[in-house]
Design a protein that fits this description.
The chain is mainly α. It has two helices and no strands.
Amino acid sequence: MAAARRKSEGTGRPQGRPYLGERAQVATRLPKPQANALKARAAASGLSITDYIAAVLSEHLERNEGPVMLDISA
């Protein structure tokens, strides 16, 4: 469940996202079935798609020491 957003003292409007540290943008295209599954898992976890992807990739990269060799020729 997402936490309630704090209100700005000056305007009373919700504050923006908290600073998460320096970031780099990475983009990709997924087949529709995988994109739909990704959206569903992100929604079920209560995260945005961006935050969900970042969390999954971070966890994967921390667990694995080497590159994953995939056969994408099919």
